[in-house]
Amino acid sequence: MPSTTISREPLSSETDSTPAIDVAIIGGGIAGAWALNLLQKRGYNCILLESSSLGADQTLASQGMIHGGLKYALSGVLTGASEAIADMPRRWRACLNGDDDVDLRGTRLLSEHYYMFAEATTLGRLTTFFASRALRGRIDRIKPEQWPEEFIGFEGVVYQLNDFVMDTEHLLRTLVADHQDRVLQLHADATNISPHADGGYEIVFADKTVHASILVSCAGNGSSQLQQALGITNLPVQQRPLKQVIVKPKHQVMMFAHCLTGIASDEPRLTITSHAEADGVSWYLGGQLADKGVELSDEEQLAKARAELNTCVPWLDWQDAQFGILTVNRAEPKQASGIKPDEAYVVRQQDFIQCFPTKLTLAPDLGDKLLNVLDKPEHPKPLQTNHPRAEIGISPW
Ligand SMILES: Cc1cc2nc3c(=O)[nH]c(=O)nc-3n(C[C@H](O)[C@H](O)[C@H](O)COP(=O)(O)OP(=O)(O)OC[C@H]3O[C@@H](n4cnc5c(N)ncnc54)[C@H](O)[C@@H]3O)c2cc1C
């Protein structure tokens, strides 16, 4: 991965009217919020700039699963994609226990467990693969008497994975809790950010101009536009759309599971997470349904979702459920033939760093890679500004 590390003397132009900081992070999804938390812990003086609200695009729309990549191994072989992230559940658990630089103690989980289920006859050779030594500790078939209650009435097989599900809104809240004065609302573009002749970037706020030694783009779907505004080239981005479905059933059962019943490709047929809100439970559906759904009209996608639930989860009642659609793009570094990237992406070009976690799960990997390309911190004085702060966004269900 191309990267350069440049050391530089502190700017002689630093004055009280142009204060200097180490890092300006652009974009307040998981990547930006994680970077802020980690870099502050490591002694960098940072700010985070967010156009709208924290998590507003992909992060709050995500299913929040912290997974070890097993869903990428449904062809029956362990691939690069499945193995790059195998260690991530352990890394996150260390953060949740306070044993990592990013301290997530007290952050809410939506579910401690994640499951996979299928009608027994449809798994074929995957049954042997799931039981293999290579997957020990990552997936366990559980007996019906150990099934959680949402599977009562199901006839088939249920596996428990070593994955779990984060409450992404609460996660963002935890990450920025100690840094709220550093989280500023600004749509970064050519009108307020420009390269400085001596290196780094100048950022214009309502009440002052600030010099940042390094700009870190965590701007997700805004990355191409930002790069264009700053004259950065050669860091192409790909977008992969998803048509997620939100269901509000009459029953109030919650589920966190992949459905593999009858899968004909190596992607879960349905990826299910659930949310308990004031107006009742919502099911949030991804997987093949959302991937393939982009080829359907909204009406067709809603009908497909209803049919999929009736086929895959027939023991629950979907009769009076309400259905809605959320279309959202995943933003990633461009890959040959548009395939999924399998690790976090951090590339530095002079004083600009482009980051994509590519998955929520890979935030710790992104943090490691970012620390590897940064120079030492050299501007400890916190920025004082009256510029408006950015708030946490609202989840889509
Ligand atoms: C439907 C869906 C489900 C998913 N489920 C999972 C899952 O279960 N597990 C998993 O591991 N991964 C999942 N992912 C992937 C994961 O959510 C994303 O990889 C991750 O959230 C990307 O985070 P980010 O911080 O890079 O981007 P974002 O969360 O999109 O944040 C980018 C931020 O930058 C801001 N911004 C953009 N341009 C500018 C600008 N010029 N100035 C200031 N701010 C700007 C935006 O407003 C936005 O808040 C899912 C993705 C989707 C879409």
CATH class of the largest domain: Alpha Beta
Named once each, the bound ligands are: flavin-adenine dinucleotide
Number of strands: 19
Low-pLDDT segments, ≥5 res: 1-13
- Fourth-tier CATH superfamily name of the largest domain: FAD/NAD(P)-binding domain
Shape: elongated
The DSSP helix count reads 10
Based on the coordinates given, report the CATH architecture of the largest domain. 3-Layer(bba) Sandwich
What kind of assembly state do the chains in view correspond to? Answer: single chain
Describe the overall structure.
By secondary structure, the protein is an alpha+beta fold. The protein has helices at 30-41, 58-61, 80-84, 88-96, 126-130, 168-176, 223-229, 288-293, 298-312, 363-373; strands at residues 20-26, 46-50, 65-66, 109-111, 114-118, 139-142, 157-161, 164-166, 183-185, 193-195, 201-204, 209-217, 237-248, 257-259, 270-277, 280-286, 322-333, 345-349, 352-356. It has two domains: 18-109 and 165-236 and 334-397, FAD/NAD(P)-binding domain (3-Layer(bba) Sandwich); 114-162 and 239-331, 2-Layer Sandwich (D-Amino Acid Oxidase, Chain A, domain 2). It contains ten helices and 19 strands. The strands form three sheets. Strands 1, 2, 9, 10, 11, 12, 18 and 19 form an eight-stranded mixed sheet that branches. It has an eight-stranded mixed sheet with strand order 6-7-5-14-15-16-13-17. Strand 11 (201-204) and strand 12 form a beta hairpin. The longest helix is centred in the last third of the chain and has 15 residues, at 298-312. The chain starts with 19 loop residues before the first strand and ends in a 24-residue tail after the last helix. Bound molecules: flavin-adenine dinucleotide (FAD). Residues 26-32, 49-52, 55-59, 61-65, 187-189, 218-222, 226, 242, 244, 286, 328, 330, 356-361 line the site of flavin-adenine dinucleotide.
